[in-house]
Amino acid sequence: MQNNDETTSPAHLSTSVLVRRLFRDNLRHYIKYLVMAVACMAVFAGTTAFSAYLMEPIVNDVFGAKDEDMLWWVAIAVTLTFLFKGLANYGQSVLMAFVGLRIIADNQNRLYRHLIGMDLGFFHSMQTGRLVSRFLVDINQMRVAVSNVVTGVGKDTLSLIGLVGLMFYQDWQLALITFFVFPIAVIPVVRLGRRMRKVTANTQEETGLFTAILDQSFAGIRVVKAYRMEDYESDRVGNLVERIFKLTIKSAKTRALSSPIMETLGGCAVAIVVVYGGYRVIHENLDAGSFFSFITALIMAYEPMKRLANLNASLQEGLAGAQRLFELLDTASAIQERPNAVPLPDPVKGNVRLENVGFSYRGSEQPALRDVDMDIPAGKTVALVGPSGAGKSTILNLIPRFHDIDSGCITIDGLDVRDAKLESLYGAISLVSQEVTLFDDTVRANIAYGKPGASEAEIEDAAEHAAALDFIRELPQGFDTMVGERGVKLSGGQRQRLAIARAVLKNAPILLLDEATSSLDTESERKVQSALDNLMKGRTTLVIAHRLSTIVDADLIYVIQDSRIVEHGPHDALIAKGGAYEKLYAMQFAAEAQQRAHASAD
Questions:
Q1: What are the distances in angstroms from CA 494 to CA 238, 383, 477, 491?
Q2: Which H or E run includes 407?
Q3: Helices 31-53 and 157-170, interaxial angle, to 10°?
Q4: Is the model's pLDDT at 600 over the cut of 70?
Q5: pLDDT digits (tens, 9 = 90+) for 68-99
Q6: Binning pLDDT at 50, 70 and 90, where does residue 105 land?
Q7: How confident is the model at residue 1 (pLDDT cuts 50, 70, 90)?
Q8: Whole-angstrom Cα distance, residue 357 to residue 410?
């Protein structure tokens, strides 16, 4: 992570620093479009001021002198002025829309690339809904601010300069009297902007929580209905919606405060012009055409002046989103590839060793693993057994560096996994977990996820080895069937077999199987276990299995209790030892025998 004043703590950065970073990271890439947009704004400003100036010949020459020739010249001038004004406004609107939408797309891509490279610990500590809120709310808020600020600085400022210049041209004394009251508005408007930034940041935080709750309740809808918690969830969402409503109202009130300030000042300015200017016209010190041109420019200047007064509020709203975006972008993954990282030896034999490994999850005071020593010989099958929470899955997650260990080392073929290139490390490992992850895509795409670009024959062969080919062919569109979000259109056993087919297709030298057959019925489990037995031949396999009967033939079994390895050895040796493994096996054998007895009685 960089350590400078522009990247470390966005929540404490000043407006100027955040604006500089917005320009550096976003706007400078589209400077030519911004230049063209500002050019269009300049044309718009010029034609706006010229349209106010035209009031002088209209009043003096057309209505005063009754010059018929001037009538047609003025009509042509008015038509061309508004034509160029409209074209210029169209040009700047399209160009600013392009820049704003490109900023959204670029930052969404940038944020996703950054997040997808983060470690598992980050995702465990961050709600999905809050991350989604960054993509949909914060980045869009930032885009609106950029568009408003650039448009305000360009279009409104240039228009104001042109109109004020015309006012000074027509009567500099009247212009000075008119504008001496406007600087008074600066102090309250700046204070309102600071309040807007704080309120907007709180609103965005609550919106992220709202998205998270929606995601959780919809994903767990079966549990919600099974426990009749619809009212509870509705109340929870209702309370949050009410908090967002109150924050949004507070934001609207804060933003609206600038309006009475500007309206009052605008009224004072117009009143001064009418009284003083009217007095001079009556006493013939000022011609009527110049006076009407002046007051037209003043009235036309009111709108860009009001928008500029609100500009700071819009900027602070966007900077609140920018802060949250930069905070995520500046959060470095706990898993970093070392500068001198090297690929794993080619070919990978698969000899895995854990030496004096200690590990604790982020934010937890209790160690998940303590002083773990383990040898997983190349080409052998090693099983991990023990009670839930003992640390079996943690070991599986540490080997591919989903987390980094706190002490000790983990090596593959003698190379510390922290010294290996991540692409090489991930390429050498296949994982099948009890928590099956399928994407809302076709069966074919979900299997091919293990090997992008795999041929049709390879995909079908992987499905057959995973005992999945028969049920796939029975699906409405076969391999082209959409599985639904998280594979909801398939049964648990079908989802598990697709995950196994994905691992089969990847064909990595190291297999990590975390309860890989836990969701299968007896017949499917027999087929898959047979396929896995064939797949494991010649490969290093680390297996976590709840049913000990499935790992009795493992070359080595490690028993884990209370975050430590308490014994290890082959099945027969551990049974003969009469220790922790023998007790686990006896308990499970008795439970299975009791279940069979109940089944026979039924």
A1: 38, 24, 15, 5
A2: strand 407-412
A3: 30
A4: no
A5: 777 788 888 888 988 998 999 899 888 888 88
A6: confident
A7: very low
A8: 8
Residue 375 pLDDT? 92
Distance CA 519, CA 582 (A): 25
User: Terminal CA-to-CA distance of the chain, rounded, Å?
Assistant: 63
pLDDT tens column, 207-237: 777 777 777 777 666 667 666 677 777 888 7
Can you say whether the dihedral through the CA atoms of 288, 290, 293, 299 is positive or negative?
negative
**Average pLDDT, integer, range 374-382:** 91
Task: Round to whole Å and give the CA distance between 602 and 598.
Answer: 6
Torsion of the alpha carbons at 228, 232, 237 and 242, rounded to the nearest 10: 150
In this structure, are residues 346 and 18 in contact, taking their beta carbons and an 8 Å threshold?
no
Q: How far apart are CA 327 and CA 333, in angstroms?
A: 13
Tell me whether residue 587 is exposed, middle or buried, using C-beta atoms within 10 angstroms of its C-beta: 0 to 12, 13 to 18, 19 or more.
exposed
Q: Which two tokens stand for residue 264?
A: 């009052």
Does the pTM exceed 0.85? no
Distance from the Cα of residue 217 to its chain's centroid:
20
Average of per-residue pLDDT across 113-124: 83
Find the length of the chain.
602
| CA-wise closest residue to 585 among 542, 539, 554, 540 | 554
Buried b (16+ CB within 10 A) or exposed e, 267-292: eebeebbeebbeebeeeeebbbbbbb
Of residues 589 and 164, which shows the higher confidence score? 164
Structure token digits, residue 289:
């055409």
At residue 524, the 3 state secondary structure works out as: helix
Q: Dump the DSSP string for 568-579.
A: EE-HHHHHHHTS
Task: For residues 365 and 207, give the distance between their C-alpha atoms in angstroms, rounded to a whole number.
Answer: 31
Which position has the token pair 């008015």?
78
Report the alpha-carbon distance of residue 111 to residue 329 in Å, rounded. 7
